[in-house]
Amino acid sequence: MYNKREIGTVYVPITTLFFPKLTNTEMMNTYNNNDLLRYIYNEMPEAEVKKITEAAKNDWKIREALIELQSAKANLGSLPMHSPSKKSVSKIMQYAEEALQEITT
Length: 105
Prior knowledge:
Blueprint: E1 22-24, E2 29-31, H1 33-40, H2 46-58, H3 60-76, H4 86-104
């Protein structure tokens, strides 16, 4: 739906995926982790995409955060996938049934 964007091709070691709110003082915009993740996964309207793209061009903190998140996203595909244990699935199903009973009663 949205065009792919490239912020940078510089390798940045992943030290943390949690960034404080990043404020672009020139543009007076504040972005949080959720905003940056929505940007990385192309889950925001084009108007917001343009604002963050412009902010990343002008603010090294935002640009660095986006590069680090893109690197993390790229590395997620290489991690092995494991099925949840039967005990975990059972607990989730039990919780869902209890929640449904609360709603219907």
